[in-house]
Amino acid sequence: MLTLFTLNRRSAALAVLSAGLVLSGCETVIDLPEPAHTPRIALKYILSNYTTQRQHDELANTRTLFVSTSQRIFSTKDVRGRKDATVVILDENGTEVERFQPVPPTSPYDTFNIGTYQPTRNLKGEPGRTYTLQASLPGFETVESKLTLPAVPVIESATFIKNVSKSDQSNVYGQLSITVADDPGATNYYVAFARVVDSQNNQYQGWSQVDIATDESDVDVDLGQFQLSTIYSFQGYGYDLFPFADAAVNGKRFSLTTNVRYYDGYCPQASNCQRPDYMEVYVTSMTQDTYNFFLARRRYNDSEGNPFAEPAPLPSNIRPGYGLFGGMTDAVYRIKLR
Hints:
Layout: E1 6-7, E2 10-11, E3 41-48, H1 58-61, E4 65-69, E5 86-90, E6 96-102, E7 116-119, E8 130-136, E9 143-148, E10 154-162, E11 171-181, E12 189-197, E13 211-212, E14 244-245, E15 253-263, E16 266-269, E17 272-274, E18 278-286, H2 288-302, E19 322-336
Parallel strand pairs: 3-19
Antiparallel strand pairs: 1-2, 3-4, 4-7, 5-6, 5-8, 6-7, 8-9, 10-11, 11-15, 12-14, 12-18, 13-15, 16-17, 18-19
């Protein structure tokens, strides 16, 4: 017998049976009442010690404030941002240290930026200090969240060895190694990633990401293994995002070694070659809430919408709303490429 569950007039996924099986049984339809829902503010913002270095900074963009509202559990509408929010950050003394304003649309047809906000004071978070985010929208209950920015990680060393035989005119392959000294006095949560930049600290050719080599990209999340993530995994689906907890290495030195690749530029003429000059290696410490959020999002994305997968709810530290006020502290190690 094949059982179909209908959820409030939305068809649930149909289980795929083995080839050749004849479906000649019956159907059972169950109408489930929709849970009560009180619309609340939903947002995501990551405060860090990073200073935006250019207008289109791909790393800064992964930490941008986005404000929306929650939806009914059975809603099929796309999430839409809100551009009428008031969002501020206060320090330990209750003094306002940051205020946000909506990102202006690039055209009358620009809906992509609706809900995205930019800081007006360019607050650079200080490790060890406590910050409170408060957000309000007309007709909604005000929400807030608090965090203490974690300490700066200690990168003892980082090396990149180019694989000359595998590299070509457009892509450079090689081996990246990073060693970190863990702080024994605290529980720490980390993520590591890298990018290439030019001598003026600009992202190169609009694409500066250092990727895990293809043969290593399909790696399961392992809390006991320190792995390289990618910058763009903090947005989108995050399949190459590997948060790491120091539970097994508390107070010890730990490291990673992995094969990577990056785009080496474009040379329209032999005398006009633009190449990256440095590889920037980031080891970033996170608050526990930030770690839990990205780890849960990784598990959520791994389920790929399978209704029969183990539930993977996303945690929230926004009260009484939904979302994440995250904290990240970057340590950067520069490797000269030429």
